[in-house]
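Input structure tokens:
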């Protein structure tokens, strides 16, 4: 591939959204929280066993966080782990309306109409 064939695309700041994931904001929040947990463990030079002794959270859970296997973790559970690592936590939320899309049935009728399928009798 030549350099001229490549196009620079600016990301949204959320890789999960850029990849079209359905819960992109939640996944981003969990990834950022996991990164903070890992940073604290590394700064304190804690092994997963030491982190377990300090927090009461299983060492295997810390191992999953370190390996970014976050599917089993809710955001509130990860925030609780941060609290057990003696971190002050401040959560800020903002809400905005989603872009409205036509209901599924309306979109299907419109798509069928474009294909000439609406109004035809079945054989």
């Amino acid at each position: 591939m030549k350099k001229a064939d490549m196009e620079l695309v600016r990301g949204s700041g959320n890789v999960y959204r850029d990849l079209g994931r359905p819960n992109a904001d939640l996944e981003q929040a969990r990834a950022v929280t996991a990164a903070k947990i890992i940073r604290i463990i590394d700064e304190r030079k804690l092994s997963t066993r030491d982190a377990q002794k300090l927090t009461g959270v299983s060492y295997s859970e810390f191992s999953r966080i370190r390996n970014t296997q976050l599917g089993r973790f809710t955001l509130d559970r990860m925030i609780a782990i941060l609290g057990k690592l003696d971190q002050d936590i401040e959560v800020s939320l903002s809400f905005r309306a989603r872009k409205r899309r036509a209901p599924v049935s309306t979109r299907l009728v419109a798509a069928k109409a474009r294909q000439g399928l609406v109004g035809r009798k079945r054989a």
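Residues 22 and 120 are 35 Å apart (CA to CA). The longest helix spans residues 24-43.
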